Amino acid sequence: MLKTVRNVAAIPQLTRQYTAKAKRSVLLQDTKKIKDYEPKLSKKAGHRVYVWGFQETGALGLQTDVKKAKERYTEMVHHPTRLQFSDNTDISDVATGYGFTAYAVQRSDGETLFGCGLNTDSQLGFQVKGNPKDPANLDVIIYPTAIRLPRENGETDDDMQVLSMSAGRAHLVVVTRNGTVFTLGNNSYGQCGRSIIDEERYSGSALVHRISQADICGEDDEIVSVECGQDHTMFLTKLGRVYTCGWGADGQTGQGNYHTAGKITRIAGDIEKERIVHLACASDCVLALNEGGDVFGWGNSEYGQLDDSENAQTQINTPRALTLTKGIGKIKSVAAGGSFCMALNTEGLVYTWGYGILGFGPFVEQTSKPQHLLPPLFGRNDFSNATTVVSIGCGVFHMGAVNSDGDLFMWGKNRFGHLGLGHKKDQFFPFKTAINGKAIKVSYGVDHTVALCRPYI
């Protein structure tokens, strides 16, 4: 049998010839086929607010109809939901109390403070019916409503802009740009910085207590921030001094005793000669940070939050330098919950300790020394190896952290859906919460969470 040998070289090769001019023509045609698309960009200065958690108190401010607000299915919001009020109002700050929320705003009508939620102790000011259909009892405000701050002659809208604010269990404290302090709500323990009046009625009260910062810290200093615990209040000044008032049964006022105090007093102890730059407290354990990155604490230490020694005190009434945070680097932020604490160092690493859901899984519920949560839990991976945590915070029963990409991670107790994960199950590791924006500030309430965000584009 003969084999046929094919001459491959003899087979003509098919090629397509283009001139340089033809190539340019084809490229020009392809370019013309591309459609120009210009997306509608949000305002660069515009902030979005997302809310989630327990809604029955009105703290989320999502309902505008009284009848719908009473319906059963509106009890909880399990996913971050955009607040309509923030679409029409420039919100600059948020604060969450026990079942209520306050918003610092900038508006053309001169209003600078709004609030919604529980108003049983007039923590949202004196509210009146604006509509005949409104409920007769205004103990619950279902939509953000203006809180009127009393002005003196000559005070401008700019003077009344909110510099700092914080909310406790049933009181709200606001510091304005001109250095005036306003306190609203329950003063049973002197947390509003005024004398305690026996059997004082707080419901339906029109009293908004006004204090000049000079009466607190003198003429040579000024208040830069306020931090409220459960039933006490702390003021931080430009010179790094700390002033407190309120309930002191666990030593949380730091005044060297366990009494209640209606008078605002500067505290000393180990922070007397320190320049404090940050205060943190969600309940009755307080952490403070100085400019050198050292941590101090006072108040409740029943779970070793402030002292891990064998014979440690469970209530500390004077600020004390903490030794248990030594060795974890220079600290740039701290947070304190009901029974646990957090610290963030300058490398962006997060540490937790105390008792509760600390982020290490369901089998670790207590540690007396700060333990490191691994960076991959907060979004660091091979494709984003520069991602670090930039801020941390605590509610009474849960914790949160925001990374450099603006993503929010939360973990802890979730009875009211306030982790925003779509369910009520407890979360034992940090888990990303789906917010349609980059988180700027997150306020962790006892049963709800509010996030101030900026748009992605």
TrEMBL record:
The keyword Transcription does not apply. GO terms for cellular component: mitochondrial inner membrane. RCC repeats lie at residues 47-107, 111-178, 179-239, 293-347, 348-405, 406-455. Residues 220-453 form the RCC1-like domain. Pfam families: RCC1, RCC1_2, WD40_RLD. GO terms for biological process: positive regulation of mitochondrial translation. Keywords: Repeat. One of its GO terms (molecular function) is guanyl-nucleotide exchange factor activity. Gene3D superfamilies: Regulator of chromosome condensation 1/beta-lactamase-inhibitor protein II. The keyword Repeat applies. This is RCC1-like G exchanging factor-like protein. It comes from Drosophila lebanonensis.
